[in-house]
Amino acid sequence: MKIAIAGSGALGCGFGYHLQKGGADVTLLDNWEQHINTIKEEGLTISVNGDKDNQKMTICKPHELKEKMDVIFVFTKSMGLNAMMESIEHIIGPNTKVVCLLNGLGHLKTLEKYIDRKNIIMGTTVWTAGIDAPGHTHFNGQGPVEIQNSDPSEKEATLEIVEMLQKSGLNGVYSENVNYTTWRKACVNGTMNALCTLLDANIEEVFQTSEIDSMLTRIIKEFAIVAKHQDNVILDVDETITYLKGVAAKVGAHYPSMHQDLKNNRPTEIDYLNGEVAEASKKLGLEAPYCQQITDLIHAKETILGITTAKAK
């Protein structure tokens, strides 16, 4: 099976590494010249749950890959999804499946501009990753990768990808309600990512504060209201908080991707998380003051750092 990883940063490299070790024919796609050259010359150096390895991998820029792919895993930042899909249209065949594991909300609408719904597979992952240097990454976790076909008729094809993920050690699981898992993952990022970024702390430090229950409750209540109105997804606030604490305990002293982005002067995905909830609330005639405040504060930090924050959907 020919696999492309569209967006080979830390998480993309982690998935590409595992899929290749599991027997798939993997090509990493990225636009970071130094990252590409390092992997071409030295291989991908990766630490997986503390165990270091080096793997020779094929990598190139999106326009340089000419073959049609069987499966494409998308791992861009939310604001980069449009641009990536435009750059890989030539490798998408009539039966190519696109698996979207992006953080955030609203990505199905973007994907449908480029590919038939029957070929779109949505999902979530709780694996975490980071880039230590060009061509050097770390990848941590053990949780599931939950996916579901957007078209009900495509379940068999999705189950094949689940099997491939399992074979590769990525704990593939078929989801019967991907909207629920997507909103639940958005809750993870709308709390952990946002709070760690604002407080300049890792997940362990934030979740040890005496204020954590109060902060989580206020944020999750706003997510839950929009999830119910917009997608008929029911999020139990107390259960979601218990889940978040369990994830935090497993992840420990990790700085999430949003914190890493600001540290490296890159725009964040806040508009696709808390910002999406705040915007959707306004359209519903509701208010989401905590998500709006978090969004404003993150954008204020971006402005202070001179980072362009234009939202592109």
Automatic annotation (TrEMBL):
<comment type="pathway">
    <text>Cofactor biosynthesis; (R)-pantothenate biosynthesis; (R)-pantoate from 3-methyl-2-oxobutanoate: step 2/2.</text>
</comment>
<dbReference type="InterPro" id="IPR036291">
    <property type="entry name" value="NAD(P)-bd_dom_sf"/>
</dbReference>
<comment type="similarity">
    <text>Belongs to the ketopantoate reductase family.</text>
</comment>
<keyword id="KW-0560">Oxidoreductase</keyword>
<dbReference type="InterPro" id="IPR008927">
    <property type="entry name" value="6-PGluconate_DH-like_C_sf"/>
</dbReference>
<dbReference type="GO" id="GO:0008677">
    <property type="term" value="F:2-dehydropantoate 2-reductase activity"/>
</dbReference>
<dbReference type="GO" id="GO:0005737">
    <property type="term" value="C:cytoplasm"/>
</dbReference>
<dbReference type="GO" id="GO:0050661">
    <property type="term" value="F:NADP binding"/>
</dbReference>
<dbReference type="GO" id="GO:0015940">
    <property type="term" value="P:pantothenate biosynthetic process"/>
</dbReference>
<dbReference type="Pfam" id="PF02558">
    <property type="entry name" value="ApbA"/>
</dbReference>
<keyword id="KW-0566">Pantothenate biosynthesis</keyword>
<protein>
    <recommendedName>
        <fullName>2-dehydropantoate 2-reductase</fullName>
        <ecNumber>1.1.1.169</ecNumber>
    </recommendedName>
</protein>
<dbReference type="InterPro" id="IPR013328">
    <property type="entry name" value="6PGD_dom2"/>
</dbReference>
<dbReference type="InterPro" id="IPR013752">
    <property type="entry name" value="KPA_reductase"/>
</dbReference>
<dbReference type="InterPro" id="IPR013332">
    <property type="entry name" value="KPR_N"/>
</dbReference>
<keyword id="KW-0521">NADP</keyword>
<dbReference type="Pfam" id="PF08546">
    <property type="entry name" value="ApbA_C"/>
</dbReference>
<comment type="function">
    <text>Catalyzes the NADPH-dependent reduction of ketopantoate into pantoic acid.</text>
</comment>
<dbReference type="InterPro" id="IPR050838">
    <property type="entry name" value="Ketopantoate_reductase"/>
</dbReference>
<feature type="domain" description="Ketopantoate reductase N-terminal">
    <location>
        <begin position="3"/>
        <end position="150"/>
    </location>
</feature>
<dbReference type="InterPro" id="IPR003710">
    <property type="entry name" value="ApbA"/>
</dbReference>
<feature type="domain" description="Ketopantoate reductase C-terminal">
    <location>
        <begin position="177"/>
        <end position="302"/>
    </location>
</feature>
